[in-house]
Sequence to fold (204 residues):
Amino acid sequence: MKRLFYAGDIKGICFLYSLKKRLSQIRNKSKYGFTLIELLIVVAILGLLAAVALILINPADKLAASKDAGRISAIAQLGGAIEAYYSSQNSTFPNPTDWGNAMVTTGHPRIFPPGIAYLSAYGVVPCTTNALPATDSTYCYDLDMIGGSGAIVFTKLEAEGKTELCSVIGSTYFVYSTADGRAGTICGASDPTPWPPGTQIYLD
Fold:
């Protein structure tokens, strides 16, 4: 006796046909890969993520911060060398016109630190007061020969983390003062000159 098809059977057949068609589409997609539009979307997302990462990392400022670390270390070294020179040379400081050579000659320090060039992108102009070394001038020196405010050795800083401390770009200095017996960051519209002890405002 033949069985008649009911409405439920027809729905089941339609469902099986639809499922078979969908499986076939999935197999075809797996066989031929992504569509061009899908690939373009993926590339756009990756490009956006790369741009965001680049902004967050800011490699130029990382390099500037590394250069500033070298300058700060050199100023700390030179500050200590000036103090040692003063103690060994009958309480006199190096003459500003020949300070680098005078210090190296007495072994304070034995080797003058090399200059560290500034990044052109930041537009920071190096200090100029008795600046050394001759190549990539980075470190400056000044002496109060009359008022008794001692000597200072200093450099300019360029990384954003330092320049943001001052209102004008290129006005952030790291300085060692013999009058204060310490080093620190200060702001100045121009190269600093020696000051009486305890009168300078340090930012760190």
In short: The chain has a mean pLDDT of 86. The CA atoms of residues 85 and 91 lie 8 Å apart. The two ends are 100 Å apart (CA to CA).
